[in-house]
Design brief:
This is Receptor-like protein 1. The protein has 11 helices and 73 strands. By secondary structure, the chain is of the alpha/beta class. Strand 1 and strand 2 (88-92) form a beta hairpin. Helix 10 packs across helix 11 (1265-1290).
Amino acid sequence: MESTSCLKFSLMSLIWIIVLMNEIHGYKGCLETERTALLEIKSFFVSIRDIGYDDKILPSWVGEDDGMSSDCCDDWEGVMCNATTRRVMQLSLNHTQRLNYFYSTSASVLINMSLFHPFEELQSLDLSDNWFTGIYENRAYDSFGSLKQLKTLNLEYNFFNDSILPYLNTLTSLTTLNLHYNKIEGSRTRQGLANLRYLQVLDLSMNANITSGSLTRLGLANLTNLKKLYLDQCGITTIQGLANFTNLQVLDLSGNQNLTTLGFVDLPNLKTLDLGFCGITTIQGLANLTNLQVLDLSDNRHLSTLGLSNLTNLQLLDLCGNQNLTTLGFADLPNLKVLDLGYCGITTIQGLANLTNLQVLDLSGNQNLTTLGLSNLTNLQVLDLSGNQNLTTLGFADLPNLKTLDLGSCGITTIQGLANLTNLQVLDLSGNQNLTTLGFADLPNLKTLDLGSCGITTIQGLAHLTNLQLLDLSDNQNLTTLDLPNLKTLDLGSCGITTIQGLSNLTNLQVLDLSGNQNLTTLGLANLTNLQVLDLSGNQNLTTLGFVDLPNLKILDLGYCGITTIQGICNLKNLLELDLRSNNFVVHLPRCLNNLTHLKVLDISYNQLSGKFPSALTNLTSLEYLDLSFIDFQGTFSINSLANHSKLEVFLLSSRNDMLQVKTQNWLPPYPLKVLQLSHCHLNVNSSFLLHQHHLKFLDLSHNQLVGNFPTWLLQNNTGLEILILWNNSFSGILPRLPNAKYDKLRHLDISTNNFSGKLPENLGIVFQKLIYLDMSKNSFEGNIPYSISEMKELITLDLSENNFSGELPRSIFSSCLSLEMLDLSNNNFYGQLFPNYMNLTHLRSLLLDNNHFSGKMTDGLLSSTWLEVLNVSNNKLSGDIPHWIGNFSSLWLLLMSENYLQGSIPVQLGNLESLEFIDISENSLSGSMVSLSNLSSVEHIFLHNNAINGLIPIALLRSSTLLTLDLRDNKFCGRIPHQINELLNLHVLLLRGNYLQGRIPNQLCQLRKLRIMDLSHNRLIGPIPSCLGNVSFWREAIDDYPYGYGFAGSNRDFTFTYYNSTLDLQLPDELHGRLDQQVGVEFVTKYRYEFFIGSNLVDMAGLDLSSNEFSGEIPWEIGHLQHIRALNLSNNLLSGAIPETFSNLKMIESLDLSRNKLSGRIPPQLTDLNFLSNFNVSYNNLSGPIPDKEQFATFDDSSYKGNSALCGSMIKRKCSNALAPPATPTGGGDEGDSVIDMVALRWSFGASYVSVILGLFAALWINSYWRRLWFYFIDRCIDTCYYWLFKYVFHR
């Protein structure tokens, strides 16, 4: 017994000694088994990394192999241990796998939960924001329950589905589970989460496929200990079993727009309820939630009545965005502290004065609010009245505790009682453009004042704001005076100021923004000795600055200033960052830049520097960022001149004039570049000069003459390369089979416009799985697209256009590349059916398949691409009708289906395309009317030519104020040109050639002032040519306002690749070649042939074609006023009279065709002044007199004049005699008399010849009796025939 007691004492003593030693010395690190397990977790994340680099994934987790000793509990990020046992209790691994700069939903990554089994005391695990799609374990999944102490599990922002639920249901110790933004449905589970009986917090929000039935299958009824439940944006309509949650304190049901039925009566402990954006109109039982403290009913636009009277404990009430809210019971909410009534459309509120405990009140955006009773709200600290433009009367005098007041964009002109707000600290008066008088003198505690966009010119008493620290006076374009001695931050951007008096008195100023003041010329900055950041960008007239007395200035932005030189800039010895982009520096940079020895960032891009590379830059060895892009350097530059820049990380160099020769021979840079651009540098060797670079992330060698095969070694040497741009070079050969290694960090690859050929490697999609942008266009690739493209799950832009690819499109692209937004396969040899049913490109925005050999009818596989904006299937062999489902794409703005075999009528569903701007369905076999296009409210360009469309031109179409181009050529339109055509005020091109239009040209057409090209030829128009055509503005004077091109990005994602951290807004080259262009082009007959005008050529073109109609009368002399017109065709009409001499004013005319009319008189000799005239035709008229033979007329041959017998001149080899040559001026009647005698002689000779023939015939019949009998027999037969015809066909006998 005694020995047993002794043994127990010894054991207890040993335990206490161990514990005491632990407390005295502590463990020097976590347990070795857990340390090893943590390193295995890191290895797992490295193996599935997305865009990050090995050194960026858990960089503080280092082992002994790394040569660094560290404690995983104290030094490792995201690890928290028990202070006594040193076991891991908390792991935060959020945002670890992807380290992304972009967004994707298609990656497939499983998390190995076996990695967490060694952590027996783990209580909190955060795996959020990693894009995991599922869970697996190396052992049976029920061992997942080995995490017996796990209480908090965060899995938000992943892609888990119902398959994870059995695993989660074993974690019975969980108290908090976050599944926000996953793919949980609750449709494929038996128990759901029913075993998690200790769960207190459950977040299922933004699982869009959860339904009301799913909540039951998820077993929520068993979770009776729940205190917080988040079900927002789940799409549920009703909740069964909500009454069981008697302990529930927080319930979020916001964003369930069809939610109609709730059981609130049995939630006695509910304190927070969010029903925002639910679309409800009234809620039964809301009054029973007597313990409710926070209630959000915002954005229920049809909510009109609430029972709030019993909610005496309510402290926060959000009713913003309820525009129909009219009746509220505020009188019985004594504890309410925060009330949001923004954008409710209210005009007055009864009982607001009774909310005596109110501290925060938001009444913004109530446009018709005019009067408020605020006098009793003595505890109010924050008041937002912004956006109430009709607010006139306020009771500010009785708000002694108000600290923040927002009166932005209220339209007020003066504020009475503002001086009494002695505790006010923040005041926003921005956007009150008519504000003129303020009482600032008695606001001693004001720290922040926003007066942006107020239109004020001076502020009286501003100097009394002794505690003011931040002042925003931006966009006050007439501001002239300022005096604030204690100010630290001042924003005067876009004020239009020219000079500021007293700026030198702001001695404590540290940050000053004067950007965007176009007329700023002089500043007094001499005394601003504490200034550290100065932004003067966008001041194009800035000439004089006092930089010499700014010793502490570190950051200076002078971009877009237009300056040519700066005095004193070289004296800023402490300057770290200098932006001089887009100025007018010419010839050289000042040599004194060598004095800026601490300069790290220098941007002088987009300047007019010329000559050799500036020698001043070679001595700035502290530079880390140097941008010399788009500068007019000339001559030869050797990169070796930057050999001493050991800190250089970013180097951008490109020539704007293509006159720079960069030498890279023997270049062994001692610095690890991250970003290198050598574009337009005439590099004409291979790219081996980069052999010694191993840290590149961005490489642009575009627009050179680089030769050789694809440089796979670049990828092998620079495993961190993210962007590789090689387009517009001379690389050639086939792409070799790529190494099996995966280049997961490469995101952007552009090898377009080279000479590559052959087939694509079969493993292309496996090697470059992580690409988001791939451009291989404008090469000579051939064969099929490899199946491995389907492995590019994150690919957003794919451009394979202008190659020789063939075959049917692989199913893998349409069913596996789910992230695709832009797909361009145009100008190849693909064939087969379009839009198969297995298409699932849900993110697709641009699809370009034109100029291939696709055939057959279009099926509806494209319907899954609900965000489609651009569709081009022109120049294929498509048949059948235009599908009706095209009208479902509400975002479609560009639709091109020309040059196919489409038939039938234009579907009425096309009228649903409210965003459509450009439609071309020309050169098909379409028929019927075009009424369905009359409702396109946004359309700018309509091309329907070369079809069989008939009927009248719809009047509704002519009411479009956006229409710029209307091409209806070569159809079967009939009727008159509607006089409502004058409503097309912005019309630039009107082409109605080759139809059956009749009647006169309406005078209203002359009101189209912006008309550039009009073709009404080959119709049946009659009457005179309207003289008012001479008033069309563009034909008289050129106006450059035609948007001839559309640009659309390959993707609208905002990808951000950050390579250098700077206070300045540094921009990498924007020439990532990810932009497509759709040019507007029209056909017009000029110079006897169809010419196609596109882009800038279309902007300069002006033409009028009225040929092949039945116009009559004289040519209006007013047509001669069209000085800008280049082509005029009036041929094949019935025009008469003389050619107007005013045609000599057509100074820009190149083609003039007046042939096949009834014009008379002479060709005006003044036409020789038309120096640009290259085609002239007056054939087949009744013109007379000499042909001009000077200037351009010396180049025209006889084909221009044939059919005019009275014309003469050397051009037609007919001499001008007196009989043919009309005198320039009448000198008497001699010549005229000679002309008359000649005509009389002609008539007498004709008469004599006629009489002689008749007498000869009579003599023959008189002499020869046989001929006489034949003659009379012939006459007799003729009489009998006429008699028979009359009686049969006229008298019907």
